[in-house]
Each structure stands twice: as structure tokens, then as C-alpha cells.
Write a sequence for this structure.
């Protein structure tokens, strides 16, 4: 298996650039703009990835008792409800006040924006490599919220990162555009079996929906350079998937070693 994402713990370093004002540090921002410019009112239904919020409100998905049930003070500051900052909040006796970044870890969130065409975050921020999809954000799995497990491995509503309606897609915590089980830091990627079918070999492997650019490779010696013998394979959907590919003529060769490759953004 060849993976091009050397998942390394990163330090998020913020170096402020030339833009003055810094009103962008809150949801609604100010002259500089803010999250609201694209995401709309937090108490509204706008989603840029087609998410449907319970009660048609992003706010309710985050705070509602039958939803994520996040304590108000994990996001809110002071005694006034606005502004809501991305990086600071009152916190509680159980959690420091990290604002949105207690769950949406900055470097990963900005990389997700960049990988979806929004590069303006880097006008002000400079980041190292984000923590991997598997790294628990500080607020997860604490008494102040029902959000837990960034791997989001269970296809069930109202657990882990599944709080929206009708989908089991959580967050792309490290920003490489691979969500949850589709992220190679979380979901399995391994050959399960090789079967002879007359002159052919069927290669069967375990993977996850949401992965693109997978390929079966073959080599003549175990340390050999793998050569793609399949076209690029994209796996649709969400969750664990068993897939297979037939190597035509594979059983007429001398010894072959098979492995899987993946190209990771
Ligand atoms: C210029 C427009 C723009 C601005 C400003 C913006 N976003 Fe986004 N945001 C997007 C787009 C586009 C996506 C990606 C949609 C997708 O994944 O298909 C996104 C996705 C997200 C997601 C989903 C991440 C995931 O893992 O799926 C979160 C959370 C988010 N934004 C939070 C924020 C916050 C917080 C701010 C303010 C600091 C902000 N956004 C500012 C455009 C914007
Ligand atoms: C996940 C973070 C988060 C949590 C948890 C949260 N809020 Fe909010 N809340 C926000 C954001 C963001 C806004 C919109 C702020 C803006 O647009 O400037 C907001 C707006 C509000 C407003 C409207 C403020 C105004 O003057 O327009 C009220 C009232 C409010 N929240 C109350 C609460 C209460 C009460 C709780 C707990 C039961 C709570 N919120 C939990 C993030 C949160
Ligand atoms: C307690 C953890 C937690 C906190 C704190 C938190 N979020 Fe979230 N947020 C999540 C999770 C988990 C999701 C994904 C829910 C889903 O897809 O089912 C999410 C989803 C979102 C989305 C929706 C993306 C989409 O369109 O699908 C936006 C926007 C967002 N958060 C913004 C914020 C902002 C802004 C703050 C701070 C004011 C904040 N969040 C604080 C956990 C949190
Ligand atoms: C105009 C400058 C500016 C832009 C553009 C900007 N930010 Fe920020 N951001 C700030 C400032 C200032 C802070 C607070 C600084 C601090 O953490 O001390 C901040 C803090 C944050 C934090 C909390 C700290 C952390 O890194 O964990 C998050 C998350 C965040 N920004 C996300 C985003 C995202 C996502 C975008 C792009 C959509 C973005 N920002 C664009 C100025 C900006
Ligand atoms: Ca969802
Ligand atoms: Ca990811
Ligand atoms: Ca996740």
C-alpha cells in the first residue's frame, strides 16, 4: 500500500499578515469579513456542502439537547451573546474556552477550505501540517458536548460527528478532503483474498466509500516497483466497502505480488 499522506503531528503556527483590523476572528466578523459571508446566519440553514440541519438551523444542530448538546459557553464569550469568536470563549469548569477551535481544529479546517477552493484563510494564517483525522479535538468526548470520535466510524445518527439529517458524513478534520472512514488514518485498506478464476486472478480488498484514485498494482518480486494493472477506481458512498478487480490472464503468469495504491490529496 502506497500512501502519500505522511500523517504527522503538526504545530499550528499563526503569523499575522498585513491585513489590519482582525475583525475576521469572529463568526460575523466586521469590515474584514467573517464566516457569515459564505456560511450565512448561524441560526439559518445555509450549508456549502449540502448538509441538512435539524430544525433547519446550524445553531440548533450544535446546541440542541437532542442534538450535539454543546454547552453555550464552549462558543459564547462574556455575558453578551455576540460576538462569537473562533478562538476563544468563556469555557466551563470542564473545558478551557477555545471557541470553535475546540472542535474545528484550525489548521485542518483551513486546509479543508483551501482544498475546496477557498484560499483566503492563508491571507492571515500560516499553518504547519494539521493533526491527522484520528486525533481527538479538545472538546470531543467531554461532558459539555455529545460530539466524540473524529473517525466517526459508526453509520448511525446522533453520535460521534453525525448530527445533521440524512447523512453519515461528519467532518474532514485534517482537511485532506477524505471524511471519516474514507481517511486512510481511520478506515482499513487491505487485500482480503486472491482467487483463481480459470486463467484470471480476482483480487478482493476492504476499503471505504469516498475514496478516489485507488488502483491494484502488481510486481514480480515482493520488493519490486508496483505497476498499476487496474484503471483508477473510485469508491462511491460512505462506510466500509468490499471491492474486487479481475486481473485478466493473472493466473497464466509466473509469480505475481499484488498490492493496493492510493493517491491522497
Ligand atoms: C469564502 C467563503 C468561505 C468563508 C469566508 C468561510 N467558509 Fe467555511 N466553507 C466554505 C466552503 C466552500 C466549504 C467547503 C464545502 C465542501 O466541503 O464542499 C466550507 C466548509 C466549512 C466547514 C465544513 C468542514 C468539513 O470538514 O466538512 C466548516 C466547519 C466551515 N466551513 C467553517 C468556517 C468557519 C468557522 C469560517 C470562518 C472562520 C468559515 N468557514 C469561512 C466557504 C467559506
Ligand atoms: C457551536 C457554538 C455555539 C453554541 C454551543 C451556542 N451558540 Fe449561540 N451562537 C453561536 C453563533 C456562531 C452565533 C451567531 C453569532 C453572530 O452571527 O455574530 C450565535 C448566536 C446566538 C444568539 C443570538 C445573539 C444575537 O444577539 O443575535 C443567542 C441568543 C444565542 N446564540 C444563544 C445561545 C444559547 C443560550 C446557547 C446554549 C443553549 C448557545 N447559543 C449555544 C454559536 C453557538
Ligand atoms: C462541540 C464541538 C463543536 C463546536 C464547539 C463547534 N462545532 Fe461546528 N460542527 C461540529 C460537528 C461535529 C459538525 C458536523 C456535524 C454533521 O455533519 O453532522 C459541525 C458542523 C459545522 C458546520 C456545518 C458544515 C456543513 O455545512 O455541513 C459549520 C459551518 C460549523 N460547524 C461552524 C462552527 C462554528 C462557526 C463554531 C464556533 C462558533 C463551531 N462550529 C463550533 C462540532 C462543533
Ligand atoms: C483577516 C484575517 C483572517 C482571515 C482571512 C482568516 N482568519 Fe482565522 N483568525 C484570525 C484572527 C485574528 C484569529 C484569532 C487569532 C488567534 O488565534 O490569536 C483567527 C483565529 C481563527 C481560528 C481559531 C484559532 C485556530 O487557528 O485554531 C480558526 C479556527 C480560524 N481562525 C479559521 C479561519 C478560517 C477557516 C479562515 C478562512 C475561511 C480564516 N480563519 C481566515 C484572522 C483571520
Ligand atoms: Ca453530517
Ligand atoms: Ca480527512
Ligand atoms: Ca471526521
Amino acid at each position: 500500500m502506497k500512501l502519500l499522506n505522511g500523517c504527522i503531528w503538526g504545530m499550528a503556527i499563526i503569523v499575522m499578515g498585513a491585513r489590519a483590523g482582525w475583525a475576521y476572528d469572529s463568526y460575523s466578523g466586521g469590515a474584514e469579513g467573517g464566516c457569515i459571508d459564505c456560511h450565512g446566519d448561524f441560526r439559518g440553514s445555509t450549508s456549502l456542502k449540502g448538509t441538512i440541519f435539524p430544525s433547519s438551523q446550524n445553531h440548533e444542530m450544535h446546541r440542541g439537547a437532542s442534538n450535539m448538546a454543546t454547552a453555550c459557553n464552549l462558543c459564547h464569550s462574556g455575558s453578551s451573546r455576540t460576538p462569537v469568536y473562533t478562538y476563544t470563549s468563556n469555557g466551563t469548569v470542564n473545558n478551557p474556552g477555545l471557541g470553535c477551535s475546540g472542535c474545528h481544529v484550525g489548521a485542518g479546517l483551513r486546509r479543508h477550505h483551501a482544498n475546496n477552493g477557498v484560499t483566503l484563510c492563508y491571507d492571515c494564517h500560516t499553518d504547519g501540517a494539521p493533526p491527522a483525522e484520528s486525533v481527538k479535538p479538545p472538546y470531543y468526548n467531554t461532558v459539555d458536548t455529545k460530539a466524540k470520535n473524529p473517525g466517526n466510524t459508526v453509520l448511525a445518527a446522533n453520535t460521534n460527528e453525525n448530527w445533521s439529517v440524512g447523512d453519515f458524513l461528519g467532518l474532514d478534520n485534517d482537511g485532506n478532503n477524505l471524511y471519516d472512514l474514507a481517511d486512510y488514518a481511520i478506515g482499513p485498506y487491505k487485500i482480503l483474498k486472491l482467487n483463481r478464476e480459470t486463467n484470471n486472478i480476482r483480487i478482493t480488498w476492504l476499503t471505504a466509500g469516498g475514496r478516489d484514485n485507488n488502483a491494484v498494482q502488481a510486481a514480480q518480486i515482493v520488493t519490486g516497483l508496483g505497476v498499476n494493472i487496474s484503471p483508477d477506481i473510485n469508491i462511491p458512498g460512505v462506510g466500509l466497502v468490499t471491492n474486487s478487480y479481475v486481473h485478466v490472464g493473472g493466473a497464466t503468469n509466473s509469480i505475481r505480488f499484488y498490492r493496493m495504491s492510493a493517491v491522497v490529496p
Summary: The pocket of heme C (ligand 3) is lined by residues 27, 35, 39, 47-49, 51, 58, 62, 68, 70, 74-75, 84, 99-100, 102-104, 139, 145, 147, 161-164, 169-171 (CB under 6 Å). Residues 190-262 form one domain.
